[in-house]
Amino acid sequence: MTINAPRGTNDILPPDSFKWQYLEEKAKEICRKYNYKEIRTPIFESTDLFIRGIGESTDIVEKEMYTFKDKGGRSITLRPEGTAPVVRSFIENKLYGKALPFKFFYSGPMFRYERPQAGRYRQFHQFGVEVLGSDNPLVDVEIIKLGIDFLKEVGLSDFFVEINSVGCKECRPPYLEKLKNYFSEVNQELCGDCKRRIETNPLRVLDCKVESCQEIIKDAPKITDNLCDKCKDDFEKVKNGLNTLKIEYREVPTLVRGLDYYTNTAFEIKSDELGSQDAIFAGGRYNGLIEEIGDRDIPGVGFALGLERLEILLEGKELDIESGIDIYIVTIGESAEREGFKYLNQLRESGISADKDYFGRSVKSQMKDADRKNSNYTIILGNEELESGQATLRNMKSGEEFSVVLSELSEKVSDLLDN
Ligand SMILES: [Zn+2]
Ligand SMILES: [Zn+2]
């Protein structure tokens, strides 16, 4: 019996893997510009980290984590997201004692036991940024701009920005009371999930997609009408910052993140192409999270971007990806193959990507292979060429041909590629 990849996972094969490299490179380039530095945390962590860092009552922790006991009896979880590990590392390495803020980016696989569907896998990939140690609202604007720059850089233009403020530990509790009272009065008209949420997490009622609930949510008290002065001021600064950078946005008062340690700015960057529920990237402030994980009152803000979803949006778009080779060496006969192998090595040593046939195929099949490998140039080596020390380079795109002295092959190919 054959063995397949586990459900909800997939192999990233060439040429698709070039696309992945391209996206990861672009993300790194943007982060370099913004002075965000890479952090690499383990793929698995202590389960407790995610229970505290994501929240016990969330879908992720309740249903979606890959949790198991290791041979030492420790409860281990494959990371379902990137923020909690970054915060854990920040505290463990005592980075709060150094020059703040710390600006990180990460990129890598995450794991959630979800029902697989288009763009949603059990092993999926996220690129994200986290800024720890500053509560300046301009940092919120900076990361939104960073994400947008990334989307534009890879060729997307069809997206929009939604923002909200979810308040702080001063102004949110009284707002939640108001919200509870409002929903309690219309309790009978809410869906079953929402009925439960009124008590456990009334903010999440605002998130409900059920149509009858939507009607009721429309008239619910808005958090932005109930912010304290500091939160109001911070939210204004975020909006001013977005205006300064000419980033258009919509204010969406129902855009919430349900847990107590999420504070102030919440944002989502969406595309109509993904359907109404799916953001390309989303994030916000979590000024209470570091205290939750590490007993320190340090502010943080970040976003995460799903690369699989981005891939869907990029489908059919021309990307600036080089997946071919510079030159393919076609050889005729055994001694030409030996010599060709030598030239192949020379070319590679001078930094040129080169390949040859390894099946002793006919010249015609080798040319076909060069085409398949998307080679810029080919050169044919037979006894005649070896004796004269000269051969013909052929540009596979234009059909142009160049005579070349074999002892100068690498230089000649370099010159042609430079032009
Ligand atoms: Zn507040
Ligand atoms: Zn509902």
UniProtKB/TrEMBL annotation:
Extract the PROSITE patterns matched here.
AA_TRNA_LIGASE_II
What keyword terms does UniProt attach to this protein?
Answer: Aminoacyl-tRNA synthetase, ATP-binding, Cytoplasm, Ligase, Nucleotide-binding, Protein biosynthesis
List each copy of the Aminoacyl-transfer RNA synthetases class-II family profile domain by range: 23-314
The protein's predominant localisation is cytoplasm
Lyase recorded as keyword: no
SUPFAM superfamilies per the UniProt record, alphabetical: Class II aaRS ABD-related (SSF52954), Class II aaRS and biotin synthetases (SSF55681)
Family membership, please give it: Belongs to the class-II aminoacyl-tRNA synthetase family.
Assembly and binders: Homodimer.
- The name this protein goes by in its record: Histidine--tRNA ligase
**Native source species:** Halonatronomonas betaini
Write the gene name: hisS
